[in-house]
Design a protein that fits this description.
89 residues; mainly alpha; 89% helix
């Protein structure tokens, strides 16, 4: 019984620490990814084009940024699940 409670405790600890690290990574990605996109398109001012009503630039920028953040979130979720499973084994 004590071993089971210890394993559950470790799983909770791994999930909590993984969740905190994951939140930091996703928040960092929301800052870094748009900056990377700005550097990859130096001849295009996305903010200016979006303010002018350029729908194509707005959709491209939004889709690229959201796809990157979704991908990072999936990796973080898998890492948290792996931590939970490692704590329970």
């Amino acid at each position: 019984m004590t071993e089971t409670l210890g394993n559950i405790g470790w799983a909770m600890l791994f999930a909590f620490v993984g969740g905190i690290i994951g939140m930091v990574l996703v928040l960092g990605a929301t800052v870094i990814i748009p900056r990377m996109l700005y550097r990859l398109t130096p001849n295009l001012d996305e903010d200016k084009e979006i303010a002018r009503g350029n729908q194509a630039v707005a959709e491209y920028f939004g889709r690229v940024v959201s796809a990157c953040i979704t991908g990072i979130s999936i990796v973080v979720a898998a890492a948290i699940l792996g931590g939970i499973l490692a704590g329970l084994m």
